[in-house]
């Protein structure tokens, strides 16, 4: 235990640094409220804690397990134990399953971790219910005894390819001292996702449809955070997985599903398992990397991308490039493998929430890889952190200026391959897998989950069927009617209305509130400013 500048006691895993070297020693509260570091980097704990007692967590309930894990990253001095427990209880009480994230046996040694039992029917609820409560907790503490303009009013801006948006809205609707602005790419989210977001009638929630891609929305959010004036005047908060608390809350279900497997099969605690993760912004699989580094026996984390395969190409080549090498792909609106390729390079696929060209959390993994590379030289920790920050900043600069970087050093790539494997899954294969599992076991997979399951089958072929595979099911199939119906219409006994939750019936008939905006961060800033002013006036 040490004491930081604010006199709080903490371990090294309870204080935070920026991946680009600009900050260190920050508290958890600062990191949650700031979202993104001032140097443009992402926050990480100084070190990943080793969970020496992890095996004793086997029979804990989901909230009890969450409390154990989160406590390793949050100093009791910042959030007292009883407050943290209460916040966790509240966050998971909104889930439809008592288990929160149940594990389902698909066949042989393949299991599906259902992460969609929260209010918005995607895995994002597992972290965003908690983040909504965290924001509320920190704001209530900051604003105690304050009135009017004295109060800290948080402006949450988020970019979504469909799921983060509705989960954030469910986590923050109606919360005091919070304005929410969610940016989605116009016309590139599923009709249900769009309706889930835009039919929210709470006054503090606003939807902006950006004429661009998800990456454009994410760039706008990062531009707002990087602008000191906007950041200071609007007091921005992040709901995307750039916010470290998102990654933190997602670590829990890796441990929980591991223990579920031990409870419901002859799998022994201590045995190795593989996790397969449908991947876009790299937040979910990064949480798995944290779990592995904390001590969970994870043989490999398998990254499953759709045809937007920048990550898969990195694991194959060591290059991280927005565009494929010359000749590898026809760009500019032509068709490749039957899929439209836009001039911006993002393909519209049947798993639209993963139509992402630049995975923002990959930066966090790069920091660990660069840190490990520096540490091999045998200098002190200050040197290692400085080297890692400089290396990450240089790679990210090349990504911005040249559209890519690499190949990275051989040792860096080897170290990435030690923990991860990767697979690219086409739309045709996605549809085939949805159809095959319906035929075999009568289970309806959503297309993102089907990307993961396809990758899992390939991984089982490589690793052997004795290693259990837990494939993450990231969304409820009803959110993606187009792909599911394409795969299953005409199959005996299939009726889409049977998988449709009551909340989604006639959702599209409700009144919608959405503003279309150009792909221009200054235009977005003006809209958000007007919205905050309106709300502050209404509240005063
Ligand atoms: C349904 C679904 N699956 C998978 C992903 C990919 O998760 P991540 O961005 O954490 O890699 C997303 C969103 O990103 C999603 O919405
Ligand atoms: N698929 C996501 C994209 C945003 O990812 P995040 O995890 O960084 O919030 C979405 O559905 O919005």
TrEMBL record:
EC class: lyase
Residues found modified as N6-(pyridoxal phosphate)lysine: 124
Alphabetically ordered keywords of this record: Amino-acid biosynthesis, Lyase, Pyridoxal phosphate, Threonine biosynthesis
Catalytic activity field: O-phospho-L-homoserine + H2O = L-threonine + phosphate
Threonine synthase N-terminal domain residues: 16-92
EC number(s) per entry: 4.2.3.1
GO MF, any single term: threonine synthase activity
A single BP term in Gene Ontology: threonine biosynthetic process
Signal listed as a keyword: no
Cofactor(s) recorded in Swiss-Prot or TrEMBL: pyridoxal 5'-phosphate
Pathway assignment: Amino-acid biosynthesis; L-threonine biosynthesis; L-threonine from L-aspartate: step 5/5
InterPro entries: Thr_synth_N (IPR029144), Thr_synth_N_sf (IPR037158), Thr_synthase-like (IPR004450), Threonine_Synthase (IPR051166), TrpB-like_PALP (IPR001926), TrpB-like_PALP_sf (IPR036052)
A Pfam cross-reference name: PALP
Hydrolase among keywords: no
Sequence ranges assigned to domain Tryptophan synthase beta chain-like PALP in this UniProt record: 100-332
PANTHER family found in the cross-reference section: THREONINE SYNTHASE FAMILY MEMBER, THREONINE SYNTHASE-LIKE 2
Annotated family: Belongs to the threonine synthase family.
Entry function: Catalyzes the gamma-elimination of phosphate from L-phosphohomoserine and the beta-addition of water to produce L-threonine.
Protein name: Threonine synthase
């Amino acid at each position: 235990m040490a004491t930081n500048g604010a006199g709080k006691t903490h371990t090294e895993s309870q204080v935070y640094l920026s991946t680009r070297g600009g900050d260190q020693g920050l508290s958890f509260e600062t990191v949650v409220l700031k979202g993104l570091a001032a140097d443009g980097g992402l926050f990480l704990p100084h070190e990943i804690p080793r969970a020496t007692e992890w095996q004793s967590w086997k029979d804990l309930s989901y909230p009890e397990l969450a409390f154990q894990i989160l406590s390793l990253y949050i100093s009791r001095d910042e959030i007292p134990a009883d407050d943290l427990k209460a916040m966790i209880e509240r966050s998971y009480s909104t889930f439809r399953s008592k288990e929160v994230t149940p594990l389902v046996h698909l066949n042989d040694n393949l299991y599906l971790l259902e992460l969609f039992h929260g209010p918005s029917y995607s895995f994002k609820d597992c972290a965003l219910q908690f983040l909504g409560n965290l924001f509320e907790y920190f704001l209530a503490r900051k604003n105690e005894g304050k009135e009017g303009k004295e109060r800290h009013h948080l402006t949450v801006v988020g970019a979504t390819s469909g799921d983060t948006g509705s989960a954030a809205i469910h986590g923050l609707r109606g919360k005091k001292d919070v304005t929410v602005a969610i940016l989605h790419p116009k016309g590139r989210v599923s009709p249900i996702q769009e309706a889930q977001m835009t039919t929210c009638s709470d006054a503090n929630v606003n939807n902006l449809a950006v004429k661009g891609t998800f990456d454009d929305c994410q760039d706008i959010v990062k531009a707002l955070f990087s602008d000191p004036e906007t950041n200071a005047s609007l007091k921005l908060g992040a709901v995307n997985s750039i916010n470290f608390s998102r990654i933190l809350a997602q670590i829990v279900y890796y441990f929980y599903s591991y223990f579920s497997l031990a409870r419901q099969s002859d799998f022994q605690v201590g045995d190795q398992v593989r996790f397969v993760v449908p991947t876009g912004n790299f937040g979910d699989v990064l949480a798995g990397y944290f779990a592995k580094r904390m001590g969970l026996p994870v043989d490999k984390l398998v990254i499953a991308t759709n045809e937007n395969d920048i990550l898969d190409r990195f694991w194959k080549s060591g290059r991280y490039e927005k565009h494929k090498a010359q000749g590898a792909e026809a760009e500019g609106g032509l068709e490749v493998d039957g899929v439209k390729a836009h001039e911006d390079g993002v393909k519209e696929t049947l798993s639209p929430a993963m139509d992402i060209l630049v995975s923002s959390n990959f930066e966090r993994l790069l920091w660990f890889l660069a840190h490990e590379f520096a540490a091999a030289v045998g200098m002190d920790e200050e040197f290692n952190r400085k080297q890692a920050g400089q290396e990450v900043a240089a790679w990210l600069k090349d990504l911005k200026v040249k559209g890519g970087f690499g190949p990275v050093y051989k040792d860096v790539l080897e170290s990435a391959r030690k923990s991860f494997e990767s697979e690219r899954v086409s739309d045709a294969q996605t549809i085939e897998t949805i159809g095959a599992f319906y035929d075999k076991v009568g289970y309806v997979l959503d297309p993102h989950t089907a990307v993961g399951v396809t990758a899992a089958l390939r991984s089982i072929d490589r690793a052997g069927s004795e290693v259990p595979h837990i494939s993450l099911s990231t969304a409820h199939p009803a959110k993606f009617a187009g792909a599911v119906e394409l795969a299953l219409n005409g199959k005996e006994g299939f009726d889409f209305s049977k998988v449709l939750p009551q909340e989604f019936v006639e959702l599209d008939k409700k009144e919608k509130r959405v503003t279309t905006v150009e792909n221009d961060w200054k235009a977005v800033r003006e809209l958000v400013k007007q919205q905050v002013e309106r709300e502050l006036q209404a509240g005063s």
